[in-house]
Amino acid sequence: MVTPLQGLSALVTGGAKGYGAGIAESLRDAGAKVWITGRDETALKRTANALGVTPIRADVTVPSDWDAAINAVIKESSRLDILVNNAGGGVKIASTEEQTDESIAAAIALNLTGVIYGCRRVATIMHRQKAGIIINISSVAGHHAWPTWGIYGAAKAGLNHFSKSLYLELRPHNVRVTTITPSWGATEFLDAAGLSPQDPEIRSKCIKPSELGLLVVEHCALPAHLCVQETILWPMVQEVNPL
Q1: Residues 180, 183, 184, 188: is their CA dihedral positive or negative?
Q2: Res. 1 pLDDT band, cuts 50 70 90
Q3: pLDDT tens digit sequence for 114-123
Q4: Rounded CA gap, 100 and 172, in Å?
Q5: How far apart are CA 182 and CA 19, in angstroms?
Q6: pTM value?
Q7: Cβ-count burial of 223 within 10 angstroms (0-12 exposed, 13-18 middle, 19+ buried)?
Q8: What percent of the chain has pLDDT over 90?
Q9: Which residues contact 227 (CB under 8 A, 6 or more apart)?
Q10: Cα Rg for the chain, rounded, in angstroms?
Q11: Are 212 and 180 in contact (CB under 8 A)?
C-alpha cells in the first residue's frame, strides 16, 4: 500500500519527546524518511531507536547546528520535503518583572529566532526544488493574553506573523508554509516550565502527541496546490471565553 508521504524526507525539531515525537512517528507511518533533532542526546537517541528514525543532536538556537542538521539530511536524501519547526518551550512562565534578561533572550531565541534560522536555510532548498512544506508549531498564547505568559506569547505571536510573511515569499515557488497552533497538550511542557501538573482527568482529554502528528500529516498530504494558512487546535475541555 502506498502511503501518502511515501519517499519524502522530513526534519522535525524538538523530536525527542512530546509533540515532536508524536509528529515524527506519524510522518514515519505515512511513509516519510524522518530525522529528529534535540538538545538532550540521550532522550533523542532513545526516541529515535524506538521509532526507527534518524537522530541529529542539534540546538535550534545555534545557527551552525542548523547547518549540520540540514547538511546531514541533504547528504542522505539529496532533498528536504518537510520541515516541522516544533522545538519550543516556556523557559520561564512568570510576570515580566520577575523575568531576567537571560530568560527573556532564551525564550525569544527558542520560540522565534531559532525557527527563523531554520526557515532561512530551508527556504533556499525548497525554492530550488520548487516544492516543499514548512510547518511551524505555534501556541494559542500567541493569540490570547494571560498573565505571566507575555514573553512566551510575544515570541509565538512573532512566529505567527513571520509564518504568514514567509508564505507570501515562497508561494510563487510552489512552497507551502503553514502554522499549526495547539493549546493544552498531554506533553512535558508544564514540567519543563516549572508549572503545576494538570489534573489527570483533564490531561486525558488534552491534545495527545499522536493526535497532533496526524494533523501534521494531513497538512502535508494535501494536494500541492493547496495550503492551509493556520489551524488552531483546542481540546474541548479547555474553556477560553471570549474566544
Answers
A1: positive
A2: low
A3: 999 999 999 9
A4: 42
A5: 10
A6: 0.96
A7: exposed
A8: 93
A9: 133, 167, 171, 176, 177, 178
A10: 17
A11: yes
Cell numbers standing for residue 129: 526544488
**Set of cell numbers at residue 14:** 524538538
Residue 78 — left, alpha, or beta (φ > 0 → left; ψ -120 to 50 → alpha)? left
What's the sign of the alpha-carbon dihedral 112, 116, 118, 119? Answer: positive
Residue with cell 509565538: 156
Q: Can you spell out the DSSP letters for 77-132?
A: HS---EEEE-----S--S-GGG--HHHHHHHHIIIIIHHHHHHHHHHHHHHHHT--
Distance CA 21, CA 73 (A): 18
Chain segment 46-85, per-residue pLDDT in tens: 999 999 999 999 999 999 999 999 999 999 999 999 999 9
